[in-house]
Amino acid sequence: MRHLMSPLDFTTRELEQLFDLANDMEQHRERYAHICEGKKLATCFYEPSTRTRLSFEAAMLNLGGQVLGFSDASSSSAAKGESVSDTIRVISCYADICAMRHPKEGAPMVAAGRSSIPVINAGDGGHQHPTQTLTDLLTIRSLKGRLSDLTIGLCGDLKFGRTVHSLIHALVRYENIRFLFISPEELRMPSYMTEMLREKGIAYEEVIRLEDCIDSLDLLYMTRVQRERFFNEEDYVRLKDFYLLDKEKLSLAKDDMLILHPLPRVNEISVEVDDDPRAVYFRQAQYGVYIRMALICTLLGLTGEEGGNIC
Ligand code: NCD
Q1: pLDDT tens digits, residue range 151-165?
Q2: Residue in 310, 229, 232, 251 with CA at minimum distance from that of residue 19
Q3: Cβ–ligand 1 contact at 126 (below 6 Å)
Q4: Residue 278 belongs to what domain range?
Q5: Is the CB of 128 under 6 A from ligand 1?
Q6: Residue 294 belongs to a domain with what CATH number?
C-alpha cells in the first residue's frame, strides 16, 4: 500500500507514467468511466477548499466510484476531540482511499501511519500540497511540452504559500530550472527553502517588483496572500494588494509565457487578463481532475486498458 504525502514520493519516471495516464484519461474518458466501480473515496477536509475537494470528488465520480466525507472540521468528530489517528482508523472501515486536508503540518502523515487504506495529503498547513503540484506539473508538461529548461517566476505570498513550496521541491529534479522569487520583503521565501536550493546548486533570485523581471519568464506562477496564516489582520491588509497582474504588465512578458495560479484568486490577477491565451489557470483546474483520476487509480492499484500500473 502506498500513500502520497509529498510530490517527491514518486520518482520522476513514475511521474511521467502518471502524467501519461492523466493525458490518456483526458483523451479517452469513456475508457476509464467504470474502472473504480464499487470503490469509495473519503474526503476528510479539516480546512476550507473548493477546487481540491471537488476535483477529488469529480475525479472519483468520473471513474465510476463513489464519494463520502466531510468538508469542515466542525461537522466531524474532531469537534468532539477525536484524534486524526482514530478518525482515519474508522474511515478505513468505510472507504478504499482517503484524501485529507488539515491545517496542521504533518497531520496527513500521522493519519497515513495508522491507516489501512491509501491516504493522500490534500494540503497540510503551510507545508505541502502534492496534488496541486502534480496538477501544476501536468499543466506545464502538457502546455509547454517540457519540465526542464525553464525560467519560473513565483509571485506573491512565498512565505506561507504551500503550493509554491511543494512545486519548487518537485521542479528541482529537472534540468536547467531557474527561479525568480517575486515577493514583498515580509513574504519572502523561507530560508529553509533557499538553503535547500543553494545546497543543490539551483539558481534563484529574489525580486520585489514583478515588472522588473516579467520579460525573462517562461512561466509566471501567481499566488494570493494567505490571509488565514497571518497572525494579525493589519499586516494582511497592508500586503494583500501588493501585486496586480494586469494587461499593462503582461504586455512586457514573452508571447509564450504561461500564467498559472492554484486559485482561488483574490486581487492579484485582473479579470481583464483571463482572456489572454497565456492565462491558463482555469485549464490548470481542469488538469487537476485528470491528475487526481490518474492518482486514485494508481494508488488503488487499478490499471487502465492502456494505462499500466505504476505502483
Ligand atoms: C491552494 C491551497 O489550498 O493551498 N488552493 C488550492 O488547493 N487550489 C492555494 C490557496 O489557497 O491559495
Answers
A1: 999 999 999 888 999
A2: 310
A3: no
A4: 131-285
A5: no
A6: 3.40.50.1370
Residue 227, classified by CB atoms within 10 Å of its CB into exposed (0-12), middle (13-18) or buried (19+), is middle
Indicate whether 219 and 293 sit together in one domain: no
Residues 122-142 have a mean pLDDT of 94
Average pLDDT over residues 116-132: 94
52 lines ligand 1 (CB under 6 A): yes
Residues 213 and 249 placed together within one structural domain of the fold:
yes
Q: How far away, in angstroms, is 165 Cα from ligand 1 center?
A: 12
Cβ of residue 224 lying under 6 Å from some atom of ligand 1: yes
* Number of folded domains that form the chain: 2
The overall average pLDDT reported for the chain is 93
**Can you give the pTM of this predicted structure?**
0.93
Q: If DSSP codes are grouped into helix, strand and coil, which group holds residue 66?
A: strand
Sorted by sequence, the CB contacts under 8 Å of residue 17 that are 6+ apart come out as 308, 310
CA of 281 to the centre of ligand 1 (A): 12
The atom of ligand 1 lying closest to the CA of 263 is 8
Beta carbon of 262 within 6 Å of any ligand 1 atom: yes
- Residue 235 inside a domain? The answer is yes
